Structure to design on (274 residues):
């Protein structure tokens, strides 16, 4: 490729555009110091000679590197979305949206407290579901529960002795590593020692609960987005407004999912701490 062809290719690039501007500046500067008029074309010819003689031309394209483009994409993906509550409240029930999201977080916290205690708590046992004659109850509906000492929980089944087999089964399959012992209408539950296996099992249970509530948050998100898109069909709002509102709801959902993820990380660290 000749020097002239290289020069023409250079002028078509972004770098070439910068050199064109430099040539114009050079011409103006020389015009201010000399009485002889120098045209922009002459300036460019002079610049061409300087470029070739000084080897300014680089074979590297003047484009952003792949890794740099990736960084830009990440920045766009992680951008902050301003929540225009006025617009959002016109397209969906904003108060219900906030309440639905927060309820998912509150219920997850409650489940963590009840089901992920290193020591089997009375509260966790009280809320265990039990099926009796096709109906579902909680253990606390069928038994009087007391903690005899830190190592033993006592359940008195005097009022519903027929439910004892179902309660024993629920306790055994609770995932709390319980080994209930029956004495007449009384059930004694030794509180199990905290083993490494028990910690790991609870950590897995924590993730299962997180997934459950993460999916609920997404269900809330999808439900409200559907309502917003229906408004687009009804008319009265621009495509941009609908898109903006959908982005707001998605951002709010992701904020609550991130909060749930933080709760999971904290709980797992607590459970696995030796």
């Amino acid at each position: 490729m000749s020097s002239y062809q290289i020069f023409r290719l250079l002028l078509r690039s972004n770098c070439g555009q910068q050199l064109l501007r430099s040539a114009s500046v050079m011409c103006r500067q020389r015009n201010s110091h000399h009485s002889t008029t120098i045209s922009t074309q002459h300036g460019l010819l002079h610049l061409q000679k300087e470029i070739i003689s000084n080897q300014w031309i680089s074979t590297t394209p003047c484009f952003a590197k792949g890794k740099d483009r990736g960084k830009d994409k990440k920045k766009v993906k992680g951008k902050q979305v301003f929540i225009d509550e006025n617009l959002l409240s016109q397209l969906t029930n904003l108060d219900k949206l906030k309440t639905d999201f927060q309820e998912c977080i509150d219920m997850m916290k409650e489940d963590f407290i009840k089901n992920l205690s290193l020591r089997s708590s009375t509260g966790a046992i009280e809320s265990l579901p039990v099926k009796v004659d096709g109906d579902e109850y909680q253990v606390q509906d069928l038994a009087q529960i007391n903690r005899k000492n830190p190592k033993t929980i006592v359940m008195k089944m005097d009022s519903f002795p027929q439910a004892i087999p179902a309660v024993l089964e629920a306790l055994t399959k609770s995932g709390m590593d319980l080994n209930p012992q029956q004495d007449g209408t009384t059930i004694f539950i030794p509180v199990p020692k905290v083993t490494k296996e028990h910690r790991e099992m609870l950590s897995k249970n924590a993730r299962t609960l997180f997934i459950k509530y993460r999916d609920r948050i997404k269900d809330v998100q999808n439900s409200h987005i559907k309502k917003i898109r229906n408004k687009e069909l009804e008319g009265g709002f621009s495509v941009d407004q609908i898109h903006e509102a959908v982005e707001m709801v998605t951002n709010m959902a992701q904020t609550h999912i991130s909060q749930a993820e933080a709760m999971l990380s904290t709980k797992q660290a607590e459970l696995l701490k030796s």
